[in-house]
Structures are given as structure tokens and as C-alpha cells.
């Protein structure tokens, strides 16, 4: 009887470990091959001989290193020697062999490398691998073990195409009426079987052969055969029927509730059977656990599949969170205790007690990577405790970290199922690494432990019902990104409820719900939490609402990744600007900020004394919406907000055509300026009738017609305030018409610009509500607001529209700490430097402000003028230069604290 594949695999691990350091052909080659044959349960002496004497084709005598007549010829070299030459030498011996002696296979090796040639397939290379990879390649030597050789085709790594194939199978099953929970569960089972076949849980090709060799080509009996298989996988060996067909009896008992539920019988045809066989050809052992869940959640939704990977959380981004949350500290502790077996054993015990919760786990990406890193760390501990595997009889008895230390909450059922299966898959991947390290095969089958994934709404179910407070160590994850303007009514209600109906909770992003609940859950504990979030929660007016409430709970930010670009590496990329915030109800002694000079690149680490809500090393302040400036500065407001349906707005061509029929209206036109017009020199005109007398208006029928249309537009609105405006159709909803020159700050500006372009306009212009304006402004005000000092403040405190800066008067401008100690001489120098900036702009009359302030095209003269202005403004604050933006923000927040102290 041949050995079982699991026994062969176990022996292969031991063989790899035993011979990993051998190099000399002459010293140990014979013992090496005796042991190799023993891996497959064969006594080498019974079937093969060393140093077979043959006469080669050139008449010279040669000695074959090892020959198993009619089966295998082995040519062996010392480590690092040329295997191509070894192969040529082996084939040279063929002329000296009889037909019965000619081998079907040639195997060449140098102890560490193996290359197998198959002469039934024209002498092609069918396997090439390192010694350490022998356990994964044993099926290539089925002829040695006494098994029938099944063709092992070249395997492609599992990638997006795998999901697309499974997606097509999903669509076909759905089309025949196999839908909902049953379909989702069915797909999960198939995915597990595909993975199990390529990772040693099942024998190689066992699942594929069941389909290919034991079902009809038209697929008519495939569904029945699969349902029978699912029952077998849920039945222990001792309870299986004695009459069970061999092709089913060979499958392992899986358990773990994965195959426990009775599902309706599906249906297959020829094409669907071929789809499943195509999936079998892929190498599912190489699947990345980081992409597994998101990849296959997408197969359930055709629209999602078109944008495949858009929500894929890359492994690198997950590590950005888990490293500072716990992994770096654990690795540092391991380094400290590794020389003491007692302390190391205690550390190992600590690893087995750590418990993790992802309250928005999706397909389990964060849990999977966290579990993998914890298991890999445990493996390093075991290598130190049991060097070389000394005294280890059953490595499975040593492993203490398990999937049941992990908890998750997921709103949708299918991702929750995927998360649980993904944890089993990564568990087995690490078990294979353990097998390799200790030279003995280890698989945790049947499944006895599971990750605790709860299907439910994390904002409604008590987290304590999922995992007890006193057991939990860490909360982590990537809660859903939904801006306040895009939330459904029920989502708004959820945020109101979990925030305790905090004032202005209607402006909060959906992700803040998880912050409120985590803060509440961790009270009085040592639990730490880290979430990925859109950077909006650390900017703009949300900061004052969210973090003021968090401060009441004594929440401390212990580490933070400042804004970076969260990209998918798949097609259909989703680029989101994110932050990672690590917090707890206690303060770490060492705090760290990860700053990005380029949001698309890697960060650099900065140690911090305190991290405030803007993710700056500075005092714990939050900026609330202020109605007037903190310092003595001009009052800014938005421009004019017409709500006119566009009936008073004209292009130059439309204006000319209108004046053809209504020439008396010419004096009533003013040039209209919004952010887009201001930055790009776009000419637009506004028909301003607010100052026009009724008598004058009635003499212009075309103008009256416009007034009537505006009135109708306002009356048709669903907004009651807009309906009231219909009573005064020539007036604006918001009117701001300075009588003299005024200062302009665009409400929206590209994040690419180092400076928001600011400027002056005269009373001949009428400002829209897309720009912020202030009358009675001087060159000093222009200079301060155009400086890097103010731009730094703006970048850290303003909100965003997508990725663009959305300049807020109430948050950014009214809270800005002006240089109140600046002398008259310093102010004069700022005015001069500001005038130099305006003069530099004037050198390029044909260029728009958008052109002038594009980082790629900004003229040297303008750059030089701004640099001089920056130095001048900096000196108004202090004589010591600022080294970077963070140093500016630390200073400004400290100054803000002084200016608001006692208020």
C-alpha cells in the first residue's frame, strides 16, 4: 500500500530540514538519495542502484549516479554546479542502456535544487524547485509513491482573472434561479475547495479529478456530485458509509460549520462545468489573503466587478495601521525577552491572549493580515524556544495563537462568510510555514475553531455582545466612508443616536459613528483603537463636533498617519485621501506622527509630545465655527448668492445679443466673478436689477421678462425660504456688494497649488458666493493671507471638496492667529513684499492666476517674490526661522491657545 500523501508530505518536510545545509556531492550523496526515496516509502536498495557502469555513445565509460531501471535516472552534483550540464551528462548515458533500462524520468540535483524531466512528454522540464519547496511538489513524484500520475499543468497565480471566472459562474447560477444566501454559501464552499486542493488540505488534483473524471461532460450530474461532496466534507471519517466511492472517501473531514448547512441542489451545464474546471487550473495556494475577501465579494455584484478592486485594501495600507497599533511594540518586546526562555514563554502566552475586534470587517482583510502577522511572530518565538525542532514530537501542540482570538461585525452576510473562510485559509498558509520550519507536516483539520464574525449593524448592536470588554485588546479597521451630504436618512439617524445627538451632528461623516462607539466601549480599559478614515474628520468644522465629544471621554490620540492617498492596485482605482488615527482612553508615553511629503509616497516618522485633533504636535485645541475674526482683521463674507436659475447670468455673446433687443440695460451689467472666473480669467456678466427703480424697469420689457422667469423659478422650488424670495425677484438671497476695492479668496482651490491665489478687485465686479470677499483690506492683509504661514494653517484646518481646498471663513479665517505683535515697520515690509508679488504677476498679463500658480508653470519671478514675502511674514511672528510646515503649525496652535485662553 502506498503512503498517504499527508504522510509523504510530512516526510518531505523532515527531509528538507535534514538536508538544508548539505553541499558536497562526494560526502553525502548516497545517504541523501536513500533518504529521498524513503520520503515516498521506498527502500532505494530494492529498486535502484548507485554508480551503474555504462558505455557512452563516444565509446568512453561512464557511471550513472543512480538508476532505477525503466523509471528514473538521477545525476547529482555539488551545490551550485550547472544543472544543464548535469542533464546533458545524464542523456549521454542513454546509448549505453537497453530499451527496458531507459528511464521515463531524469532528475538532476545539487542538494538544494531539483529539476525533473519527463520523457513521456518529450523530455520537457515538468518541475523545478528548491529543496525547501519539496513538500509542495511531491505530486510530481507520484510514480515513485505508487500512485497513478496525473498531469500537473503549469499553474497561473490567482489574480483578478480568477474572480472574473468565478463571477461568470456566479452569473450562470443566478440566471437559472439559484440566488441569494444559497448562492453566496455555495460560492464560498467552492472557493474553499479550490484553495484546499492547492495547499495540501486535499490531495493534489483531488477536487479537479472528481469533476473531470467522475461527472458527465454536459454537467448534468455535477450538482448532485458536489452536494454529496459537501456532505462528505462535513462527516468525520468514522461516520462515513463503508460504500462511499473512493474518489469521495479520499477527501478530508473539514467541519467548522462551513459545510454543515443543507443547501438546495444547484444545476450545471457544459459551459458551467468547464468554468469550474478552468478555475481548478489556477494556483490558489498563491492567493494573497489581503485581496481574497474584496476580490471575491466583487463576484457577487456585476457592477462591482466592472470596477474590480476599487475597494481593495492593500496589504501595505493595512500594515500602516497595525504596525504602530501593536505589531512594532510586540516585536520590540520579543527582541528584549528572546534570550530568557522563561520570559519568552510568558510572551508566547501573551500572544495567545490578545484579542482583536474589527467592527466594520467587510471581507476580513484587517483581521486576516493581523492574524497572519501574529502567527508569524509566534513562529519566530517557537524557533527560539525549540531550535532545530529539538524535542518536538507534535508541532501542533506548541501553537497557541488561533483564529478564535478574532472578532468582527459586518453589515452584509456574504462578506461576513468570506471573512470567516479567509481566516481559515491564512491559518493554513501559516501552518505550512510551521511545517517547513519544523520538518513535520501540520494542518489544523478538521476545523475546530473559527473567527467570531457577527452579521449585523455595528452602529446598532452592542459591541459587548460580540466580545466582552475585559477580554478585548485592540479595535481596528476601515469603517465605511460616507460623507454627511451623501448619507441616507437612516444613516443620519444612526449618527445622531450614537453621538448622543451632539450639536451639529448632521455635518459628521458616517465613519464618526465608529469613533463614538469605540470611545464609549474602551472607557476604563487598556483597549487601544486605530481606524482608517477620510481626512475630513481631522479638518474643517467636523473637528470641533467630533473631537470635542471625544475629549469629554478623555480620548488621547497616540499615533497618526497624516493625509495620504489610499489607492487600490487593481483596475478601477479608487483614490481616497485618508488618515489613520490611533487612540485610547489613556495617553502613551511615546507618540508618533507619520508625515507625508508626497501623499502618494511613503511617510517619515516624527516623535510628538501631544497629537491634537488636526494631527499636529501641539496643544489639544479644536476650532469651532467662529462668527468674527479672532484678531483685529477685516471681516470676510461670501459674495452674492442669487438663486435665480441662471436667468440673470450671461456669457459675452449672450450679453451682446440681449443688448441688441434691450440697449437701455447696458449700464445695469456688471462683470460676474466666482472662483472659476477669478482663477481662469473667464468673462461672464450679471444683469443687476436690485438698484433699478420700478419705473425704469418697466421701460425694459426684456428685463421684465427675466424678472418674471426668476420669480417663477423661485416659486417652483421645494424650499420654503426660496419660495419666499419670489416676493423680491430682483434681489439676491445673499447680497454683498462692496462700494470700493475688495480682497478675494476663492472658496475652492486645487490642492496642487502651494498658494491659494488671492487678489484685489474693484467695484465694477460683482462677486458670486463661490469666492470670499472683504472690503477695507490693505496690502498687509493681502501679504499675510498670501503667505506660507497662512497657507499652512489653511491646509491643516480647512475642509475639502474631493481633494481640493474648501476655504472656510468660520473655521480657517476667523480662527487664524494674526501676528498681533508685529511692529509698524514689519507691517510696512509686508506691504512692500505683497506689492512685489502683485508686480510679479503683472509681468505676465496673458497668463491666468491658474497658470501662474500651477507648480509646473509658476514663473521664477513670482516664486522669488512669494519666497521673500514668506520670510517677511515669518519674522512678524518670530525671529527664529520655521524649518517646515509642522513647525509652523506647532507655533500657530500654541499662539491660538494663548489668544483664546480664558475664552
TrEMBL record:
Keywords: Methyltransferase, Transferase. It comes from the Bacteria. The keyword Hydrolase does not apply. Residues 11-175 form the MmeI-like N-terminal domain. It is an enzyme of class 2 (transferase). Residues 181-259 form the MmeI-like helicase spacer domain. This is site-specific DNA-methyltransferase (adenine-specific). It comes from Candidatus Electrothrix aarhusensis.
